[in-house]
């Protein structure tokens, strides 16, 4: 299983985490994800997720003109999004804890 | 910052794909603009379209489309105008020429052919947007649909002449009224769709008949004039598309 396939299931949560750190737009999210060591197979894969997060009411967005360069769509978390992020964190903690225990256990 | 031709094409195709998938106009514009911004940022840093779409634009378009709600209400709103326009196309010409009649066959067959033809066009547009077809293939497919539609309609007309009795043939005055209603529908259609196509196309198709109905012309001359205007109009339309294309992509032929 490639890491991008593994990422698929948790990309929603990762984007919530990035947006939770402050208002941001698509391309900047990619740059931030890369800073944390994520390598995306396709950068565009965040947009279907962002559409879904918006549909579910976890994020809201606003179009802004940028002084140099293209118009950008900035995302922020809604209260429901904050709540979802907390729940994601809990789920991730318990999952990663279990996986770690499993794979790091000496024979 | 000017986008590469590939990226521009991708954005245009994405819009077409989402449009023919029945998504909301405002939402299509929003995602297209967002992706255009991303592509501009990416290209200004030397990345290619493939790093954004992941190599398969088709799969990516499907992926985006699946996360957008289909605007059924919007589609239903479009239907009445659409149906009116199709009916107007079918009967205005005959009404102007004075050979309008209604028979059971026409009443059943024309809506079926019209519906099937529109369905085929929408299907072809969707495929065209997501697959990389050569210009030749695009042209062949669209001309084929057109030819099959015209062929089927001609077949129905022939059958109708030989085997079906019209159950209603309006008087000449009523035909003019029907033609006038058709014209009004075309004008409303133009205002509604904010394009001139629903006015210009009927003008070429039915205009010559209208003018000739006031003159004493024999049938053959009429036929030639009709053909001439139709072919001329077609060439003009193609030229117009070509010039538009040049204007939008000044760097490419």
Structure description:
The complex is a heterodimer of chains A (107) and B (253). Chain A has 107 residues and is an alpha+beta fold. Helices cover 60% and strands 13% of the residues of chain A. Chain A has four helices and three strands, in the order H-E-H-H-E-E-H. Chain A has helices spanning 3-20, 26-35, 46-55, 79-104, and strands spanning 24-25, 59-64, 72-77. In chain A, strands 1-3-2 form a three-stranded antiparallel β-sheet. The two termini of chain A are 23 Å apart. The model of chain A has no long low-confidence stretch (mean pLDDT 89). Chain B is mostly helical and 253 residues long. Chain B is 79% helix and 0% strand. In chain B, helix 1 packs antiparallel against helix 6 and helix 6 runs antiparallel to helix 7. The mean pLDDT of chain B is 82. Classes of the chains: A alpha+beta (107), B mainly alpha (253).
How many helices of chain A? The count is: 4
* Beta strand % of chain B: under 5%
The gyration radius over C-alpha positions of chain B equals 22 Å
The termini of chain A sit apart by: 23 Å
Which descriptor suits the 3D outline of chain B? elongated
Strand order of the largest sheet of chain A: 1-3-2
- Roughly how many Å apart are the termini of chain B? 20 Å
Radius of gyration of chain A: 15 Å
**How are helices and strands ordered from N to C of chain B?**
HHHHHHHHHH
Question: What ranges of chain A have pLDDT less than 50 throughout 5 or more consecutive residues?
Answer: none
Q: Please tally the helical runs of chain B, counting DSSP H or I stretches of 4 or more residues.
A: 10
């Amino acid at each position: 299983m490639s890491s991008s396939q593994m990422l698929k299931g948790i990309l929603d949560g990762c984007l919530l985490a990035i947006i939770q750190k402050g208002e941001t737009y698509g391309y900047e999210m990619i740059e931030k994800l890369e800073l944390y060591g994520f390598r995306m197979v396709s950068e565009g894969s965040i947009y279907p997720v962002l559409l879904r997060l918006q549909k579910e009411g976890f994020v809201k967005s606003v179009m802004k003109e940028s002084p140099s360069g293209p118009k950008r769509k900035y995302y922020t978390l809604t209260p429901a999004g904050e709540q979802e992020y907390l729940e994601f964190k809990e789920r991730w903690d318990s999952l990663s804890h279990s996986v770690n225990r499993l794979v790091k256990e000496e024979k | 910052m000017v986008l590469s031709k590939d990226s521009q094409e991708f954005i245009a195709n994405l819009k077409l794909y989402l449009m023919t998938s029945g998504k909301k106009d405002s939402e299509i514009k929003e995602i297209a603009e967002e992706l255009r911004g991303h592509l501009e940022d990416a290209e200004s840093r030397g990345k290619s379209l493939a790093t954004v779409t992941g190599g398969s634009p088709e799969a990516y378009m499907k992926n985006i489309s699946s996360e957008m709600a289909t605007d059924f209400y919007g589609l239903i709103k479009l239907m009445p105008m659409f149906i009116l326009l199709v009916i107007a196309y079918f009967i205005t010409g005959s009404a102007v020429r004075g050979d309008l009649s209604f028979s059971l066959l026409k009443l059943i067959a024309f809506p079926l052919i019209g519906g099937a033809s529109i369905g085929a066009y929408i299907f072809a547009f969707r495929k065209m947007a997501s697959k990389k077809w050569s210009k030749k293939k695009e042209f062949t497919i669209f001309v084929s649909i057109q030819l099959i539609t015209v062929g089927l309609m001609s077949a129905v007309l022939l059958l109708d002449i030989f085997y079906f009795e019209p159950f209603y043939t309006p008087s000449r005055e009523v035909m003019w009224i029907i033609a006038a209603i058709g014209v009004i529908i075309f004008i409303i259609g133009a205002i509604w769709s904010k394009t001139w196509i629903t006015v210009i196309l009927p003008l070429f198709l039915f205009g010559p008949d209208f003018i000739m109905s006031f003159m004493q012309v024999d049938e053959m001359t009429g036929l030639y004039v009709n053909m001439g205007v139709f072919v001329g109009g077609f060439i003009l339309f193609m030229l117009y598309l070509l010039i538009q294309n040049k204007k939008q992509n000044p760097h490419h032929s």
